[in-house]
Amino acid sequence: LALESDLRAALADAQFELHYQPKIGSADGRVMGFEALLRWNRPGHGRVSPLEFIPLAEELGLLVPIGAWVITQACRQMAQWRDQGLGRIRVAVNLSPSQLKSADLIDGVRASMTSHGIEPNELEMEVTESMMMDDPEQAIATLNRLRGEGVRLSIDDFGTGYSSMAYLKRLPVDTLKLDRNFITGIDKDTRDADLCAGMIALAHKLGLSVIAEGVETEAQRSALVERACDVFQGYLFSPPMAAADVAAFLKGKV
Ligand code: G
Ligand code: G
Ligand code: NA
Ligand code: MN
Protein backbone atom coordinates (compact mmCIF):
# COMPACT_ATOMS: atom_id res chain seq x y z
CA LEU A 1 0.00 0.00 0.00
CA ALA A 2 1.21 3.49 -0.84
CA LEU A 3 -0.25 4.81 2.41
CA GLU A 4 1.60 2.19 4.41
CA SER A 5 5.01 2.74 2.80
CA ASP A 6 4.56 6.51 2.95
CA LEU A 7 3.70 6.26 6.65
CA ARG A 8 6.75 4.08 7.32
CA ALA A 9 8.96 6.81 5.81
CA ALA A 10 7.22 9.78 7.43
CA LEU A 11 9.08 9.84 10.74
CA ALA A 12 12.57 9.59 9.22
CA ASP A 13 11.64 12.22 6.64
CA ALA A 14 10.43 14.65 9.33
CA GLN A 15 6.93 14.92 7.87
CA PHE A 16 5.16 15.12 11.22
CA GLU A 17 4.22 18.34 12.95
CA LEU A 18 2.35 19.22 16.11
CA HIS A 19 -0.49 21.70 16.18
CA TYR A 20 -1.69 23.18 19.44
CA GLN A 21 -5.23 23.87 20.65
CA PRO A 22 -5.65 26.12 23.69
CA LYS A 23 -7.48 25.15 26.87
CA ILE A 24 -9.26 28.17 28.33
CA GLY A 25 -10.12 28.73 32.00
CA SER A 26 -13.84 29.29 32.46
CA ALA A 27 -13.42 31.77 35.32
CA ASP A 28 -11.14 34.31 33.65
CA GLY A 29 -10.53 33.25 30.04
CA ARG A 30 -6.89 32.54 30.85
CA VAL A 31 -4.97 30.07 28.67
CA MET A 32 -4.36 27.05 30.92
CA GLY A 33 -2.28 25.17 28.35
CA PHE A 34 -2.52 23.51 24.96
CA GLU A 35 -3.31 20.07 23.58
CA ALA A 36 -0.75 18.90 21.01
CA LEU A 37 -2.36 17.27 17.97
CA LEU A 38 -0.35 15.38 15.42
CA ARG A 39 -0.37 16.37 11.74
CA TRP A 40 1.23 14.52 8.84
CA ASN A 41 2.42 16.55 5.88
CA ARG A 42 2.25 13.72 3.36
CA PRO A 43 4.06 14.53 0.12
CA GLY A 44 1.57 14.93 -2.71
CA HIS A 45 -1.42 14.76 -0.36
CA GLY A 46 -1.14 17.81 1.85
CA ARG A 47 -1.92 17.69 5.53
CA VAL A 48 -3.45 14.39 6.62
CA SER A 49 -5.64 14.18 9.73
CA PRO A 50 -4.68 11.68 12.42
CA LEU A 51 -8.11 10.11 12.01
CA GLU A 52 -6.86 8.84 8.65
CA PHE A 53 -3.48 7.47 9.74
CA ILE A 54 -3.46 6.82 13.52
CA PRO A 55 -5.37 3.51 13.33
CA LEU A 56 -3.02 2.24 10.58
CA ALA A 57 0.05 3.49 12.43
CA GLU A 58 -1.11 1.66 15.54
CA GLU A 59 -1.71 -1.52 13.57
CA LEU A 60 1.77 -1.33 12.00
CA GLY A 61 3.43 -0.77 15.38
CA LEU A 62 4.50 2.70 14.28
CA LEU A 63 2.70 4.60 17.01
CA VAL A 64 5.35 3.77 19.60
CA PRO A 65 8.17 5.57 17.74
CA ILE A 66 5.79 8.27 16.44
CA GLY A 67 4.42 8.77 19.95
CA ALA A 68 7.94 9.03 21.34
CA TRP A 69 8.63 11.75 18.77
CA VAL A 70 5.43 13.55 19.87
CA ILE A 71 6.58 13.57 23.50
CA THR A 72 10.07 14.80 22.63
CA GLN A 73 8.74 17.44 20.23
CA ALA A 74 6.22 18.73 22.80
CA CYS A 75 9.00 19.09 25.41
CA ARG A 76 11.30 20.78 22.88
CA GLN A 77 8.50 23.21 21.98
CA MET A 78 7.75 24.01 25.63
CA ALA A 79 11.45 24.76 26.16
CA GLN A 80 11.50 26.99 23.08
CA TRP A 81 8.45 28.96 24.18
CA ARG A 82 9.96 29.31 27.66
CA ASP A 83 13.28 30.52 26.21
CA GLN A 84 11.39 33.03 24.02
CA GLY A 85 9.95 34.55 27.18
CA LEU A 86 6.43 33.17 26.83
CA GLY A 87 6.68 31.50 30.23
CA ARG A 88 6.09 27.89 31.11
CA ILE A 89 3.23 26.67 28.98
CA ARG A 90 1.57 23.36 29.81
CA VAL A 91 1.19 20.96 26.90
CA ALA A 92 -0.90 17.79 26.80
CA VAL A 93 -0.07 14.96 24.40
CA ASN A 94 -2.32 12.04 23.49
CA LEU A 95 -1.07 8.56 24.38
CA SER A 96 -1.90 5.51 22.27
CA PRO A 97 -2.64 2.06 23.75
CA SER A 98 0.65 0.65 22.42
CA GLN A 99 2.61 3.50 23.95
CA LEU A 100 1.08 2.88 27.34
CA LYS A 101 2.25 -0.74 27.08
CA SER A 102 5.70 0.12 25.76
CA ALA A 103 8.58 -0.72 28.12
CA ASP A 104 10.45 2.40 27.01
CA LEU A 105 7.73 4.92 27.85
CA ILE A 106 8.87 5.97 31.32
CA ASP A 107 12.57 6.29 30.46
CA GLY A 108 11.71 8.20 27.28
CA VAL A 109 9.48 10.63 29.13
CA ARG A 110 12.09 11.19 31.82
CA ALA A 111 14.82 11.78 29.21
CA SER A 112 12.70 14.25 27.24
CA MET A 113 11.69 16.17 30.36
CA THR A 114 15.24 16.28 31.73
CA SER A 115 16.95 17.37 28.55
CA HIS A 116 14.46 20.20 28.00
CA GLY A 117 14.16 21.36 31.59
CA ILE A 118 10.49 20.49 31.90
CA GLU A 119 9.17 20.83 35.46
CA PRO A 120 6.62 18.61 37.20
CA ASN A 121 3.06 19.25 36.00
CA GLU A 122 4.18 21.04 32.82
CA LEU A 123 3.75 17.98 30.63
CA GLU A 124 0.34 16.34 30.56
CA MET A 125 -0.86 13.12 28.96
CA GLU A 126 -4.36 12.28 27.79
CA VAL A 127 -5.45 8.66 28.02
CA THR A 128 -8.78 7.05 27.22
CA GLU A 129 -10.79 4.65 29.33
CA SER A 130 -10.59 2.05 26.57
CA MET A 131 -6.82 1.88 27.12
CA MET A 132 -7.53 0.25 30.49
CA MET A 133 -9.40 -2.67 28.95
CA ASP A 134 -6.69 -5.24 28.06
CA ASP A 135 -4.73 -5.16 31.26
CA PRO A 136 -6.07 -2.67 33.78
CA GLU A 137 -3.51 -3.49 36.48
CA GLN A 138 -0.61 -2.91 34.10
CA ALA A 139 -2.15 0.31 32.80
CA ILE A 140 -2.78 1.67 36.29
CA ALA A 141 0.79 0.80 37.32
CA THR A 142 2.18 2.66 34.31
CA LEU A 143 -0.02 5.69 34.97
CA ASN A 144 1.22 5.76 38.56
CA ARG A 145 4.81 5.71 37.33
CA LEU A 146 4.09 8.55 34.90
CA ARG A 147 2.54 10.52 37.75
CA GLY A 148 5.71 9.80 39.71
CA GLU A 149 7.72 11.42 36.92
CA GLY A 150 5.65 14.57 37.33
CA VAL A 151 3.36 14.02 34.36
CA ARG A 152 -0.19 15.32 34.77
CA LEU A 153 -2.87 12.95 33.52
CA SER A 154 -6.31 13.42 32.07
CA ILE A 155 -8.96 11.02 30.86
CA ASP A 156 -9.87 11.86 27.28
CA ASP A 157 -13.32 11.31 25.76
CA PHE A 158 -14.71 10.71 29.24
CA GLY A 159 -18.10 9.05 29.34
CA THR A 160 -17.80 7.21 26.03
CA GLY A 161 -15.60 4.37 27.23
CA TYR A 162 -16.26 1.03 28.73
CA SER A 163 -16.78 0.84 32.48
CA SER A 164 -15.78 4.44 33.23
CA MET A 165 -16.91 4.51 36.82
CA ALA A 166 -15.01 1.42 37.90
CA TYR A 167 -11.66 3.00 37.07
CA LEU A 168 -12.35 6.51 38.24
CA LYS A 169 -11.46 5.81 41.82
CA ARG A 170 -8.25 3.99 40.89
CA LEU A 171 -6.77 6.15 38.17
CA PRO A 172 -4.19 8.72 39.31
CA VAL A 173 -5.67 11.43 37.09
CA ASP A 174 -6.09 15.17 37.58
CA THR A 175 -8.69 15.98 34.96
CA LEU A 176 -11.68 14.58 33.11
CA LYS A 177 -12.27 15.69 29.55
CA LEU A 178 -15.98 15.48 28.78
CA ASP A 179 -16.44 14.08 25.31
CA ARG A 180 -17.65 16.42 22.60
CA ASN A 181 -20.78 14.29 22.13
CA PHE A 182 -22.15 15.52 25.47
CA ILE A 183 -21.29 19.13 24.71
CA THR A 184 -22.94 19.41 21.29
CA GLY A 185 -26.49 19.42 22.66
CA ILE A 186 -25.88 20.83 26.12
CA ASP A 187 -27.81 24.05 25.46
CA LYS A 188 -30.80 22.26 23.90
CA ASP A 189 -31.06 18.71 25.21
CA THR A 190 -31.83 18.48 28.91
CA ARG A 191 -30.45 14.94 29.07
CA ASP A 192 -27.06 16.09 27.78
CA ALA A 193 -27.17 19.01 30.18
CA ASP A 194 -28.06 16.75 33.12
CA LEU A 195 -25.35 14.25 32.18
CA CYS A 196 -22.76 17.03 32.04
CA ALA A 197 -23.92 18.49 35.35
CA GLY A 198 -23.73 15.05 36.95
CA MET A 199 -20.28 14.23 35.58
CA ILE A 200 -18.94 17.63 36.63
CA ALA A 201 -20.32 17.24 40.16
CA LEU A 202 -18.87 13.73 40.39
CA ALA A 203 -15.46 14.88 39.18
CA HIS A 204 -15.42 17.75 41.67
CA LYS A 205 -16.34 15.39 44.51
CA LEU A 206 -13.32 13.30 43.55
CA GLY A 207 -11.09 16.38 43.45
CA LEU A 208 -10.74 16.38 39.67
CA SER A 209 -11.08 19.31 37.31
CA VAL A 210 -13.27 19.12 34.22
CA ILE A 211 -12.56 20.19 30.65
CA ALA A 212 -15.32 20.38 28.06
CA GLU A 213 -14.14 19.45 24.56
CA GLY A 214 -15.60 20.69 21.33
CA VAL A 215 -17.13 23.92 22.64
CA GLU A 216 -18.29 25.68 19.48
CA THR A 217 -20.94 28.19 20.54
CA GLU A 218 -21.53 30.87 23.14
CA ALA A 219 -24.72 29.05 24.20
CA GLN A 220 -22.73 25.90 24.95
CA ARG A 221 -20.13 27.94 26.82
CA SER A 222 -22.67 29.61 29.08
CA ALA A 223 -24.51 26.32 29.72
CA LEU A 224 -21.17 24.90 30.86
CA VAL A 225 -20.35 27.91 33.05
CA GLU A 226 -23.73 27.46 34.70
CA ARG A 227 -22.77 23.85 35.49
CA ALA A 228 -19.39 24.81 36.97
CA CYS A 229 -17.19 23.38 34.20
CA ASP A 230 -13.58 24.45 34.86
CA VAL A 231 -11.92 24.62 31.44
CA PHE A 232 -13.01 24.83 27.79
CA GLN A 233 -11.50 23.65 24.55
CA GLY A 234 -13.03 24.08 21.12
CA TYR A 235 -13.45 26.08 17.95
CA LEU A 236 -15.25 28.88 19.87
CA PHE A 237 -11.82 29.81 21.28
CA SER A 238 -9.47 28.48 18.61
CA PRO A 239 -8.87 25.53 16.32
CA PRO A 240 -5.53 23.76 16.72
CA MET A 241 -2.80 26.11 15.42
CA ALA A 242 0.79 25.84 14.26
CA ALA A 243 3.43 26.39 16.95
CA ALA A 244 4.50 29.61 15.26
CA ASP A 245 1.03 31.11 15.83
CA VAL A 246 0.97 30.48 19.56
CA ALA A 247 2.90 33.61 20.56
CA ALA A 248 0.48 35.86 18.65
CA PHE A 249 -2.50 34.00 20.11
CA LEU A 250 -1.21 34.51 23.65
CA LYS A 251 -0.53 38.20 22.96
CA GLY A 252 -4.10 38.68 21.77
CA LYS A 253 -5.28 37.32 25.11
CA VAL A 254 -3.57 39.93 27.25
O1 G B 1 -7.30 17.24 15.36
P1 G B 1 -7.80 15.96 15.38
O2 G B 1 -8.14 15.64 13.98
O3 G B 1 -6.38 16.28 15.56
O4 G B 1 -7.38 14.56 16.04
C1 G B 1 -8.09 13.42 15.67
C2 G B 1 -7.82 12.29 16.64
O5 G B 1 -6.44 11.92 16.62
C3 G B 1 -8.15 12.59 18.08
O6 G B 1 -8.82 11.46 18.59
C4 G B 1 -6.84 12.75 18.74
O7 G B 1 -6.87 12.33 20.09
C5 G B 1 -5.95 11.83 17.91
N1 G B 1 -4.58 12.30 17.98
C6 G B 1 -4.10 13.51 17.60
N2 G B 1 -2.78 13.60 17.84
C7 G B 1 -2.41 12.41 18.39
C8 G B 1 -1.17 11.89 18.88
O8 G B 1 -0.13 12.55 18.89
N3 G B 1 -1.18 10.61 19.35
C9 G B 1 -2.31 9.86 19.40
N4 G B 1 -2.22 8.62 19.88
N5 G B 1 -3.49 10.32 18.96
C10 G B 1 -3.55 11.59 18.48
O1 G C 1 -9.94 12.49 20.73
P1 G C 1 -9.49 13.88 21.00
O2 G C 1 -10.32 14.48 22.07
O3 G C 1 -8.05 14.06 21.28
O4 G C 1 -9.84 14.69 19.68
C1 G C 1 -9.66 16.02 19.51
C2 G C 1 -10.24 16.27 18.14
O5 G C 1 -11.31 17.21 18.21
C3 G C 1 -9.24 16.82 17.17
O6 G C 1 -9.55 16.27 15.94
C4 G C 1 -9.59 18.31 17.17
O7 G C 1 -9.15 18.95 15.98
C5 G C 1 -11.10 18.24 17.26
N1 G C 1 -11.74 19.45 17.77
C6 G C 1 -11.23 20.37 18.60
N2 G C 1 -12.13 21.35 18.88
C7 G C 1 -13.25 21.02 18.21
C8 G C 1 -14.55 21.64 18.08
O8 G C 1 -14.85 22.67 18.69
N3 G C 1 -15.45 21.01 17.29
C9 G C 1 -15.16 19.86 16.61
N4 G C 1 -16.12 19.35 15.85
N5 G C 1 -13.95 19.24 16.72
C10 G C 1 -13.01 19.82 17.49
NA1 NA D 1 -7.09 14.27 23.26
MN1 MN E 1 -11.20 13.79 23.39
From TrEMBL:
This is EAL domain-containing protein. Coiled coil: none annotated. It comes from Pararobbsia silviterrae. Residues 1-254 form the EAL domain.
